[in-house]
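Batch manifest line 378
LIGAND: uridine-diphosphate-N-acetylglucosamine
JOB: complex structure
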Amino acid sequence: ILHGIENSVRPISIAAVLSVIGYFVSMRFIPPVMQILFDRNIYGIDINKTTVETRQQFSKARKSGAEFSDTFKKLVVPESLGIVVGGIYLCAVLLALILAGVPLTKANGAVTTIAVMLLLGFVDDVLDVRWRYKLILSVFGAMPLIMGYEGALSVAVPIPLRDYIGSAFLYIGPLYLVYLVAVCVFCTNSINILAGVNGVEVGQSLVIGIASLVYNLVQLRHVDDQTTTEQHRVAIVLLLPFIGVSFALWKFNRYPSRVFVGDSYTYFAGTVLAVAGITAVYSKTLLLLFIPQIINFVISLPQLFHIIECPRHRVPRWIPERNVLTNSRNGTILNALLMVFGDMHERRLTNVVIVFQIVCSVLAFYIRYVLAGLVFER
Ligand code: UD1
Ligand code: MG
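JOB STATUS: finished
ARTIFACT:
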């Protein structure tokens, strides 16, 4: 039974070392690139620390092209640091795959998809791509991964339905590939819209990343065939450096943010998590790890479909007198949490989201390992 894990000690150790190196290289390069991005006018205003009036004055000053006053200089934060950690990540993963002796053909599609989505995110940060183009382009981004997909094309039928269907597995073929593309697109966009308070994008991604890593390690102990072992190994090699570079980014992005991560990071992070899940064939468990994002997506639907008015930024409202955030009546999980637990400080709100994400991970493991056994045999 330990066969899977024994053969994987070397690749996992190599990926772990590269994860640590990725962390330090990111720590080394984020500060200088922050300055460069700022000089290139790639920055954003920290919304939850400003009033509407300040933001209006700021955008006037920005349009006029005049030098910022010192007050404005304090409010702007370099944006899009995801491109730095994403670049470092790609180098780390390529090195890890080569050194660990994982055949590149097994990971080609995964790496290409991650690279394309990182590029799409960065282009979006710089050029502000419209929603519909982003969706179409992310479908193209998922293609390299899907074309190299080697998992099953069937879904397991729950035990009570087997008599009606007549078998334990139902072959759905190409439809399954469509589902996998949808998982990719969902993961990237759902992280991107659970955003807007300092540290929340990286925080949630780190929790899901670590939970995915644990899941793959647990599974490795159970599998005994070559193909599945290899799939979990690739997923682990993809996840470890992601966790390393994200920790570095977290240090700069947590409250009070010294950098913003940009869509380059949210797209990159969502894609790494989806790619790992699809490569190692655990998309259902992955979706369980995305419960907070699914909730946020569902309560966002009326605004996403413009049934209710959708402002450019759906963030809570800042009350300067008390320095807390309050429900702004936009349909997001952030506002829902403020409604349930009352007004709170920005740092606290991020922590609450992260704790909720951790609780959901535990729940996901419970559903996967205990409840799923009742409807599917393990
Ligand atoms: C998504 C959300 C949007 C949210 C934004 C925040 C939807 C449909 N879109 O848009 O509602 O406002 O993310 O990232 O739900 N910012 C902060 N504090 C932070 C993080 C970001 O003030 O902690 C602001 C900064 O001005 C930053 C900007 O958000 O420049 C980045 O927004 P961007 O990632 O471009 O927004 P979207 O992903 O399009
Ligand atoms: Mg974003």
